[in-house]
Amino acid sequence: MSDEAVIALVAVAVSGIVGLATLGFHFWNASSERRQRFSERKEDSREWYKRTLFERRLQAIQEGRRWLTRLWAIYDPIGGRGSAPIGDAMAWYENNIIYVHGEMPANSPIGRFLYGVEESMANGAGFPDNSEWVAAIDHLNEKARALFEELER
To answer: Which H helix or E strand runs over 59?
Structure first.
């Protein structure tokens, strides 16, 4: 074989090796970029979820405070009491219990107060006393503080 033929074969071989190396580098680079984009999307989704959950929990806590205040305001210690949409308050509680408590509690000061009001309105039972209302309000305040502490972490 002539020197020119050997040089040509070596050039073809080197060109092939360089081509394969380039192809391998592009494949590795594309794979690395895909992993990076996936990681960024995953982090974006996690942040969206945390922000949405925070907003939803804050809204539920604020609505809970409004319901408790509204229900307590209709009670007149002298004996008369107005009417309140206790069904709406109960529906709110049942739809937001997980946001207010962060779990499905077996016993809750908010639930105890609302069920007491419901019983009072339906059957003329005694209206829940001030301590039950205060316990429900304190519970909501504690949940609001915890929510903001969580945000600061």
So the answer is: helix 3-73
